[in-house]
Amino acid sequence: MISEQKLNLGGEWFDGVSGINSQSRYLTREEILKGIEDRKMKRLMEANLEEIESIEQDERGYDFKTEINGNNVVD
């Protein structure tokens, strides 16, 4: 397999960015795979952060409810 294989978009090998210097638009297979992996990792990190935020909001809500109900007495 050729290591310089590019992503084929409509019969032309390019990354979708227009420019004067066409050589700057070409991507290697490895660059494309790295970009896909980077986007996947970013989505996973965002999902984890959203889950953590949701858990923290639930915990704050529970703490507030117990404080309002008098179960958490502060001296």
Short structural description:
With 75 residues, this protein is mainly alpha-helical. It is 53% helix and 5% strand.
Task: Explain this structure.
This protein has 75 residues and is mainly alpha-helical. It has one domain (8-68). It contains one helix and two strands. Strands 1-2 form a two-stranded antiparallel sheet. The radius of gyration is 25 Å and the shape is rod-shaped. The termini are far apart.
Secondary-structure blueprint:
Blueprint: E1 8-9, E2 12-13, H1 29-68
Antiparallel strand pairs: 1-2
Characteristic terms for this protein:
75 residues, mainly alpha, two-stranded antiparallel sheet, 1 helix, 2 strands, 53% helix, 5% strand
